Amino acid sequence: MNMEYNSVITDFNRKVQEITVLSHAIPAIRQGVLLCRQTLSRLRDIVKQTGLNTQEAEIRFFKEIKAIPLSWLIYFTEIGSCELRKPRADRELQKQFYKKQLHKADKFFQRHREFVYYMEQGHTHRDPEYFTRKALEHFPLSTGIEGYRDPDFSTSHDLLWAQVQAMDRVTEHLEKNIEELSSGSFSVLNGDAGNYLAWTGTKTDLVVLIYALYSGKVINHGQADIAEITAAFETLFDIRLPQVYKTYAEIRMRKGQRLRFLEELIFRLSKKMDEDDAF
């Protein structure tokens, strides 16, 4: 049973990686939505055919397996909505729009802070309540969307857990867009008004890169510490990273792809080499 699920998820992770490194244009987002729906349909079929015969298997499926394509489906839907609704011409209006969406994401995390804390701390004592279908035996008589969920393919908190993971990615997407729109404020290097370097990724991505260089001991023969490397990048890109250690701690607490930024760099470079070889 695990082999079937793992095969589906492995295939999904490979395909979603290819989509996310392309762009966040609407066609790519539509591809992502379709991939997620197809994967969820495949997982539902496997569950119907093989069942989830133990509580451990049920918890693992709804907590670790189904959450992957479901969270990406929510992510693609959210950023697709943002891209369709954002102002088209004025960069400042676009920044205000993204900041407003960022505020909404923060309110979501505040509203569910107890559950987020439970998951981030790796607790498991409430997993039978959150991630088994037994908790859905008594359906509420309400008109809310919860009343229409498939009881054979849902638990009380699997959707919320997927939303938490999706909103983490949405937050990174919004922060990156804000940074890119603000890149015109970066200072000029070497006194040449035509030559400057602007970091247009998220600050979180830059922190990942800093720690990767530090861990690799490739600067000053491994003698440079985090503070020195951070200061060098702050000067290079005219950017402030006042909470680099806190950011690193938050990255460590993430579930799943903690090093997604570095994996994307590897994928893009490998893809470029393959394209160059083709010529």
Automatic annotation (TrEMBL):
Pfam families: RteC (PF09357). This is Tetracycline regulation of excision, RteC.
